[in-house]
Protein 1
Amino acid sequence: MKVSAIFLLSVISCACAAILCPPNYCDSMLCEEVTSENCEGRVQEGGSVCGCCDSCIAQIPLGVSCHQTMLLGLPATSECEQGSKCDFMSMTCIAKTCAELKEEQGNMLAALDKPLLGAHLPECEADGSWSARQCTGSKCYCVDEAGKTIEGFGAKIWEAKDMTCGTFFSREILTLPRF
């Protein structure tokens, strides 16, 4: 069984590698216009086979099957929504941890090669989970265990020095300035 699975994977890998784009291939392609108005997802510039045409990438919500993202060698037509990833064990979209998002955003900021005014990386606990208080731009706010904003509780960043949100995790009422 293992040998046949390995053989099948090697055949698929070879077939995917055989998809080559000949020179001037895109010159003969007729591309449909893909815009944010006609795409219910994310527009990927040059996202089709050989990068000839723009494509629409459907966004898969949390908890929904993401097995269709596993088409090896073909351009993606769907992906887990922003802030989530495909869990290969359950084949469903799950939320990224705070640590994963912090690393991802840190890499993006490092690639800019200059500081970005108002940019803040997520605040994470030592175990990679979300800190209860997060700050972005000029505001600080409270988040739940999944890192989702708890509406109505926050403060301007210069007023939030002593702001604590940890009691939200235990569902206690917290008095904070409201936006």
Protein 2
Amino acid sequence: MRGIALDGRRAAVAGPVAMNPNRTESTSISQRSNAMKKLFKHIVLLSLSSSLTLAASAQESVEQNILKLEDQWSEALVKADTAFLDRLYADDIVYTHTNGTVNTKTEFLDAIKAGKAKYISVDRSDVKVQSYGDTVIVTSRAIIKVNTVTLPSRLIHVFVRRNGEWRLAAYQSTRLPD
């Protein structure tokens, strides 16, 4: 097919319906192959982008769940809700107090039930959540009032996901200078 160029000369019309006698079948296949490769790359990039978005969303969900458990933990200590704490704490929790005393789950819950550990308040700040798959580490500052003592502290909580449920597997508090 021929057309007229702007300068008045005849020019070949290019486009999907124009036939190019110089075009070979291998050139056509090569161009289609390149187009398919580009399309495949775009599909892969789109899929990766979607996967990263879903992963970020899942990460936010884990963080929100853990922060909710953290709030419930503080409330349960103050209310002496040992039933909640029993569900939250892993059976093999390592519970390390500011004075270095280490309790098992049973020892700690028994102390609360007996009134030996009466939590007045747990005020946390500077809470940070780091997720590593089925393990989450939470760090924070806290002012813990227990019995007649006020303890400015740094806390580390280690949560693990077991059978789809988050459990507090380790608690460590370090007393800060007054």
